[in-house]
Structures are given as C-alpha cells and as structure tokens.
User: What shape does this take?
Amino acid sequence: MGLIEEHRMTRTVYLNGEYFLENEAKISIFDRGFLMADAVYEVTSVLDGKLIDFKGHADRLNRSLDELDMKNPIPYEELLTVHRELVRLNDIDEGLVYLQISRGAPSDRDFVYPNPDETDPTVVLFTQNKPGLANSPSAKKGLKIISIDDERWGRRDIKTVQLLYPSMGKMMAKKVGADDAWMVQDGYVTEGTSNNAYIIKNNKIVTRGLSNDILHGITRAAVLRFAKEAQMQVEERNFTLDEAYEADEAFITSASTFVMPVVEIDGNKIGHGLPGSNSSRLREIYLEESKKLAI
Ligand code: PDD
Assistant: This one.
C-alpha cells in the first residue's frame, strides 16, 4: 500500500474527549462494551457534509442510556460538535457517523455494574465514508429478503451493541443469495436485522407499532411524518408474512439505507418484482426533506 493511500484510509476518530488516528486509539480489555455488550450506539447519516436527523439520534441515545442506568457523559452541544468535527477532519460528503458509549472499563470482569463515580463511560465515535450513499444502485433494483425467527432479547427498543443475532441473520440471507432478513415473532414481522419493515397494500403503508419488540427508528419517525404530510395513509399495526407476500410494495428504513424498496420476500415477488412507485416516491421525499433539515 502506498503512503498516500495509507494516509487516506487512516481516519481520525474520537475517544473520550480526544481525537486520534484510528490505529492509535486504544481501549481496555476490561471495557464492558467488549466483555458484555454493555454499550449503546447510534448511526447518523451524512449527506452533503451535513448530519441527517441528528436531534432524533441524540434523543434516542439519551433514552437508551436512561434505560440502562447510564449517565450521558457528553452533552448535546458537545456531541454535535464532535460529529461535525469528525465529518470535517475526515472530509465526509456522504457517509455515516458511528457513536458508541459503553459503561466503561472497571478494573476487573464483574456482572455487577461498576460504581459510576469510579468508572467513566467509554465514548467512541468514528466516520464511515460512503460516496454515493443517496444514489445507491440498490434503490433502483430493490432488495431480496428472507424471513427468519426473531431470536433476539426482549428489549430491542434499547439500541445496544448486542448485534450477533442480526449479524447471523444477514449471513443466513447472504448464504441463499438474498440481501437481508426480516424477523418474525408469533407469526408477525418485527423488523429487519438493522432496519424497520413496511408493506403497502391498496396505497396504505403498514408497519408494526412501537413497543419493546422493535427499535424506534429515527428514519421511521421521519418517513411516517412525511408520508402523512403527503396525504398517504399510514397504519401502525402488526402484519404477517402472508400479508407481506401479497403486498403491492414493501420497503425498509434506516439511517444507512434511508427508504429502500424490497422486491422479493422468501422467493415471492412483491408487486411486479420491481421497486414500487410509493416506495420510490417516499425515498425521494425523505432524501429531499431530510437534506433540508440537515445540520
Ligand atoms: N440500524 N431496527 C434495527 C434493529 C436497527 O438496527 C436499525 C438501525 C433500525 C433503524 O433505525 P434508524 O432509522 O434510527 O437508523 C431499526 C443501524 C443503521 C445500524 O445498526 O447500522
């Protein structure tokens, strides 16, 4: 690897109040994020060098921390500054900012939480450069989905780094030539491995309501708001796989995919097997409106 190439790939990252080159940032082997997945995270997208839905992500981070009795070590304004600084230092036009806060590194492994007065949380942020994120070719082709049982824990509303089952789900999809998996519990779709799931039937958008069963997607909230503003009908309720197979359209949402059409579920073509017009329109509206609100 040439020097210039190496330099280009060496990101500047943030760790506990300081900026480092990515290969110089070090954390303890006793960090509870590493040992126990005792950590929460957020992924915020960047378009035109600006942060999309930043406040939503910051608010959800606070909620995740509260649910786990962790104090937020980084106030809103500082969090925003660090996000912006990383975008600037790494010259990100389109991409993502990843943030993780763990309960920190006590002096030994222990199931009991460490005393927060003695152990500071570990705060890590880094960027992922993704040129072409908004213009993704997948949005024109649509995704192929398989269904799998939802075998995650019961507090999926907390955005923890326990991502092994979602990772296994993506691998199950890949193995059979699909792009992703939707998870099913008691006969109803919960969500995608790293996204919220939707179907459209007779021009009505259907997605599971908010509860501890799914992550309260920030993109979901924005998309449902924009859909209602565009006079589209929205129904928040459980839906089955059979309903999904019979749907006119399907799509997913997340900070890294925005609105992404789904064209096949378990080998069943959805609609005509091409991205649906409502899904494509929602993607356009979401990109346009959220860029206007980006900071
Ligand atoms: N994942 N559901 C799950 C299980 C998720 O992991 C995500 C996000 C979403 C969508 O949430 P939002 O719209 O706030 O991104 C729903 C992120 C992108 C990730 O893990 O990379």
Notes: The first helix runs from residue 3 to 9. The chain has a mean pLDDT of 96. DSSP finds nine helices and 15 strands in the chain. The pocket of N-(5'-phosphopyridoxyl)-D-alanine is lined by residues 43, 191, 194-196, 215, 217-220, 253-256 (CB under 6 Å).
